[in-house]
Amino acid sequence: MEKSSGAAAGGRAPPSPLHMEDFQLEGKKPVKNPFVPIGALVTAGVLTAGLISFRYGNSRLGQKLMRARVVAQGATVALMIGSAYYYGDQIKLFKKGSSP
């Protein structure tokens, strides 16, 4: 019986290791405002805590956490709009030359 030289048992070579440059997203901007992802995580955390408190029957705490979620979500949206305005990204609703 002959032994194969370096090939796997199926006759194929092992896959090459993955590198970070293989996963670069073309045309995507880096995150300019790190508070937006943090705000999204805070919103998700408060939502999770509120749902857990409702599950255990603590509706008073759950209601307070749902209100806090609305505040956190509003702050995140305000950060998104503020950073878009600050960095000059404008929402264009109409094409040039058209009227509303």
UniProtKB/TrEMBL annotation:
GO terms for cellular component: mitochondrial membrane. Residues 1-24 are annotated as: Disordered. The keyword Transmembrane helix applies. InterPro entries: Hypoxia_induced_domain (IPR007667), RCF1 (IPR050355). Gene3D superfamilies: 6.10.140.1320. Keywords: Membrane, Mitochondrion, Transmembrane, Transmembrane helix. The chain crosses the membrane at residues 35-56, 68-88. Residues 2-98 form the HIG1 domain. It comes from the Eukaryota. Residues 1-13 have a biased composition (Low complexity). It is found in: Mitochondrion membrane. This is RING-H2 finger protein ATL48.
